[in-house]
TrEMBL record:
<dbReference type="GO" id="GO:0008137">
    <property type="term" value="F:NADH dehydrogenase (ubiquinone) activity"/>
</dbReference>
<dbReference type="InterPro" id="IPR037225">
    <property type="entry name" value="Nuo51_FMN-bd_sf"/>
</dbReference>
<dbReference type="Pfam" id="PF01512">
    <property type="entry name" value="Complex1_51K"/>
</dbReference>
<dbReference type="Pfam" id="PF10589">
    <property type="entry name" value="NADH_4Fe-4S"/>
</dbReference>
<dbReference type="InterPro" id="IPR019575">
    <property type="entry name" value="Nuop51_4Fe4S-bd"/>
</dbReference>
<comment type="similarity">
    <text>Belongs to the complex I 51 kDa subunit family.</text>
</comment>
<dbReference type="GO" id="GO:0051539">
    <property type="term" value="F:4 iron, 4 sulfur cluster binding"/>
</dbReference>
<keyword id="KW-0479">Metal-binding</keyword>
<dbReference type="InterPro" id="IPR036249">
    <property type="entry name" value="Thioredoxin-like_sf"/>
</dbReference>
<dbReference type="InterPro" id="IPR019554">
    <property type="entry name" value="Soluble_ligand-bd"/>
</dbReference>
<dbReference type="InterPro" id="IPR011538">
    <property type="entry name" value="Nuo51_FMN-bd"/>
</dbReference>
<keyword id="KW-0408">Iron</keyword>
<dbReference type="Pfam" id="PF10531">
    <property type="entry name" value="SLBB"/>
</dbReference>
<dbReference type="GO" id="GO:0010181">
    <property type="term" value="F:FMN binding"/>
</dbReference>
<keyword id="KW-0411">Iron-sulfur</keyword>
<dbReference type="InterPro" id="IPR037207">
    <property type="entry name" value="Nuop51_4Fe4S-bd_sf"/>
</dbReference>
<feature type="domain" description="NADH-ubiquinone oxidoreductase 51kDa subunit iron-sulphur binding">
    <location>
        <begin position="441"/>
        <end position="486"/>
    </location>
</feature>
Amino acid sequence: MHREKIDRIITEHRQFLDQFNHHVFVCSGLGCPRNDEIRRALERAVQTQHLQDAVLIRKVGCMGLCSAGPLVLIQPQELMYQGVQPEDAEEIIASLGKSPIQRLLLPADLAFFTRQHKNVLRLSGRIDPESLPDYLVAGGYQALLKTLATLQPPDILRSIQDSGLRGRGGAGYPTGLKWATVAKAQGSPKYLICNADEGDPGAFMDRSLLESTPHAILEGMIMAAYAVGASQGFIYIRAEYPLAVQRLKRVIRDAEQNNLLGHSICGSNLNFHIQIRLGAGAFVCGEETALIRSIEGKRGLPRPRPPYPAEKGLWGCPTLINNVETYANIPPLITHGPEWCANLGTDKSRGTKVFALTGRVRHTGLIEVPMGMRLREIVDDIGGGLTEGHTLKAVQTGGPSGGCIPAALLDTPVSYESLNELGSIMGSGGMIVIDETSSMVDIVTYFMAFCRDESCGKCTPCRVGTAQIHNLLIKFQNHRATMADLEMLEWLCDLLKNTSLCGLGQSAPNPVLSALRFFRREFLDCIATEQAHEEVKP
Ligand SMILES: Cc1cc2nc3c(=O)[nH]c(=O)nc-3n(C[C@H](O)[C@H](O)[C@H](O)COP(=O)(O)O)c2cc1C
Ligand code: SF4
Ligand code: FES
């Protein structure tokens, strides 16, 4: 699609949108139940009140504060209604242009919204996820057009490197370095993969991004393909994400029909196609080498690295593999320039990070904050503090590969380095707030059961070790453990970390080790003998 055609779509769509005095945005994310019913009820109310020419009902992506959902946003007044039900529809439509409905109104100055810094989530909840004209009117695909018209692949590689962006899939590998390695790797064709497997329990960042702004992921992927010289891309997504898959199919088709994907994209010399590959829901298939085997049609088993996928990936060819959120960062980064990302966050952790904030805080949902923000600000300000009558015990970050940060260390800034120092990780962005009612032994037992079930069984330390560690943890849960069990637990964790073949086994002990470091007393309390009490004597 050439610029003139894009400009025409933007002008026509703006004219269409401007006809209406009020736009009513209904969240269509999975976190807001009955949203289809609510939207239909609002549409009916518009008809019964004969307001078809004045009011437009729109389906949008997640607005973030899922715990207050279903959410409805009224534009241009920027009024947000919470806990909306289909029965409220007539009243909402009747109130447009008049006084807001106080019982449904969310305070405009809620810290949940004002303390965030939205970058990849900036259009989430603001556009119809499936509408190309909506994305274009919001400035979408402008970064791609700028790239194709004015930048050469080395310019983009330099920008990504200068920005200091690190992969958002968990390990935090420098994105610019990975892209540069693929760009200069020998072999063709070159492939590109978007890792949308998202297997961490409690994580829904990637799903939400794909459901809310799927065009933004495509745009990031197309720009990456141009930068590294890839001609074929794959989005590997688990089959348990049907809404995201349905929306992706739709936007890929629209992008193809409008020459944003395919041959000679926007009249340039770039040819790039994207296909979707469905995963069956194995956590290990998120690991890059296992994922690659899965796309090749084989069983998703990891293999040792090197060689890294950047040099030998899909079918032995150079392959760029990045996470959904990493690709979503690319269009704003190219639009605003590398300094913009570099100026946000900390020295080594730049930009913003999306988290799925869950657990015992008042406000849960999807948030985006600058790197370096303190955990306390996330829990107390954005999360609104703990639910009535409860006190904070810890914040778990990084899912089954992460760890627990105790309440005493809540002033820790959220960065790759500071979380690692505490034996946890940023991971892909799961953040669970834990209160005094939860047992840390129970929590780590849950994560270890998850890793045991998801272990692919290829290497012995992980296959046998996760089961043994889990058995030991059950002994602690049942107050039947001994000091020898505690020693064995630590020894096994160490063994697993150092001898497992892939990241699943290497990181499975992290929650246990971090709980032992900060909440050792809880393990000792589960020891049946006198020894535990002797152990803690000064
Ligand atoms: C067991 C395991 C599961 C993983 N799951 C995911 C996942 O679901 N999504 C993801 O992007 N990365 C996942 N990773 C990390 C990927 O292997 C890879 O590092 C990442 O996709 C690279 O993208 P990035 O550089 O943009 O972070 C996983 C790693 C391991 C060891
Ligand atoms: S560490 Fe676990 S998941 Fe990874 S290869 Fe070994 S058995 Fe499979
Ligand atoms: S899904 Fe509706 S606000 Fe998150």
